[in-house]
Amino acid sequence: MTESNTNRRNILTGAATLSAGGLLALAASATPAAARSTRKSSAKAAGQDAELLNAAIALEHQGIGAYDIALGSGLVPASATDLVKTIQGHHKQHRDDLAAAVTRLGGKPVESKTIADYAKELNAASITSLTDIQRLALRLETGAANAYLGLIAPLSDSGLHLLVAQMAADEASHAAIFILDLKEAYPAKAPLYG
Predict the structure, then answer these.
(1) 3-class secondary structure, 129
(2) Residue 183: helix, strand or coil by DSSP?
(3) What is d(CA 150, CA 146) in angstroms, rounded to the nearest whole number?
(4) For the chain, what is the domain count?
(5) What confidence tens digit (pLDDT) does each residue in 21-64 have?
(6) Residue 95 pLDDT > 60, yes or no?
(7) Within a domain: residue 58?
(8) CATH number assigned to the domain comprising residue 162
(9) Which of 135, 127, 124, 123 is nearest to 181 (CA)?
(10) What b/e string do you get for 124-161 counting C-beta neighbours within 10 Å, with b at 16 or more?
(11) Count of helices and strands (H, E) across the chain
């Protein structure tokens, strides 16, 4: 696993532990002692799931921003624009589905940063060719596939497992497109992700 894949997974798994404790403290203080034991675990689980999904939303925002940067760069040929917009549309649908799940869990979906923020994070100034765009997309899509696979086990709401597994499959499909476009050697050993 590459460093960027590890970092994306760490972002997803590390985000939950940070604010779930604060959420639990708030839930405990607002709940009568008799009901606290059963609500405590379900409130904590929902809060942790919401935090994990919010980290995934942040990554989807980054992906959407990366494709905006690519489309605005003048480096994507007209023949590829529709495909890039389709892939970006998948990321927008992922974001929307994740935001709906976070809301159902009682959380607030994380907001997007500005395109300038994403350009800085992604070092967009160094992108000078279509190949640079494809390599960035491959790195982000591979990292997203691994991140979603890493989300399945920590999510306590089993109803969310299928959602994130489907998103992992979408991201793996996107990565395969860029592997083929770049004429990269397809990995000989399985599993390719996870």
Answers:
(1) coil
(2) coil
(3) 6
(4) 1
(5) 332 332 333 333 433 333 446 888 899 999 999 999 999 999 99
(6) yes
(7) yes
(8) 1.20.1260.10
(9) 135
(10) beebeebebbbbbbbbbbbbbbbbbbbbbeebebeebe
(11) 6, 0
